């Protein structure tokens, strides 16, 4: 059965809103958590401001285990945990949980790699002025690496749009669910084309916004 576009457009708008909701909530949560994990990973490395081999090894192992897992497998594997935490495995709120878990560790590695690019002399200068480890991390390293960090978060934002589409295929709602339910399962090419165009528009908007913000920061 082909979609009646005179009444189908509201479904497209609602699905797009669900996708934006999933992506923005996940980005906010995973940015806070990923920044914390990334800072801890950087600080505890050998030669860091708070070196701790055990903590660094544990964090690194978690990241290396979770990051390579394809998201479609991660969302299924985390389903029991999602049910325990959220109360359901279906819907946008249920999709946010596994998306946040996966994105957190991706952002943590982005944070670590960008902090490593900061000149060591900046850290030494802060130490010579009496700055403690926490102050160095939050008021020296993060501002110094802010431009590249924004670019890294832009990359993750685009990845989250992809994650949301995958989540939609297993009941997560959003554009992915619309494409699966009304496009793929009903063999409606027009629905598939529209959903792909919506996803492309979201990706282009995210990339444009991230590039603009990072350029403005780097010019300071």
UniProtKB/TrEMBL annotation:
It is found in: Cell membrane. Gene3D superfamilies: MetI-like. One of its GO terms (biological process) is D-methionine transmembrane transport. GO terms for cellular component: plasma membrane. The chain crosses the membrane at residues 20-42, 54-79, 85-108, 136-161, 190-210. It comes from the Bacteria. It is a multi-pass membrane protein. The keyword Ubl conjugation does not apply. InterPro entries: AA_ABC_Transporter_Permease (IPR051322), MetI-like (IPR000515), MetI-like_sf (IPR035906). Pfam families: BPD_transp_1. Keywords: Cell membrane, Membrane, Transmembrane, Transmembrane helix, Transport. Its main location: membrane. Belongs to the binding-protein-dependent transport system permease family. PANTHER family: ABC TRANSPORTER PERMEASE (PTHR30450), TRANSPORTER, PERMEASE PROTEIN, PUTATIVE-RELATED (PTHR30450:SF14). This is D-methionine transport system permease protein MetI. It comes from Streptomyces lavendulae subsp. lavendulae. The lineage of its organism: Bacteria, Bacillati, Actinomycetota, Actinomycetes, Kitasatosporales. The gene is metI.
């Amino acid at each position: 059965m082909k979609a009646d576009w005179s009444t189908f457009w509201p479904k497209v708008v609602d699905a797009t809103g669900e996708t934006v909701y999933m992506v923005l909530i996940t980005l906010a949560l995973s940015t806070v958590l990923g920044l914390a994990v990334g800072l801890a990973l950087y600080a505890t490395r050998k030669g860091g401001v708070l070196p701790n081999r055990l903590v660094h090894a544990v964090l690194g192992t978690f990241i290396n285990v979770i990051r390579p897992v394809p998201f479609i497998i991660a969302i299924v594997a985390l389903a029991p945990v999602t049910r325990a935490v959220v109360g359901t495995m279906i819907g946008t709120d249920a999709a946010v949980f596994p998306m946040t878990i996966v994105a957190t560790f991706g952002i943590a590695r982005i944070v670590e790699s960008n902090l490593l690019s900061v000149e060591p002399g900046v850290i030494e200068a802060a130490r010579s002025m009496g700055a403690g480890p926490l102050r160095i991390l939050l008021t020296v390293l993060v501002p110094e690496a802010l431009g590249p960090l924004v670019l890294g978060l832009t990359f993750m934002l685009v990845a989250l749009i992809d994650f949301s589409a995958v989540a939609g295929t297993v009941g997560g709602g959003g554009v992915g669910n619309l494409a699966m339910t009304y496009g793929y399962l009903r063999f409606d090419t027009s629905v598939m084309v529209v959903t792909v165009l919506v996803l492309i528009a979201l990706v282009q908007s995210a990339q444009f916004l991230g590039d603009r913000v990072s350029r403005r920061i780097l010019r300071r």
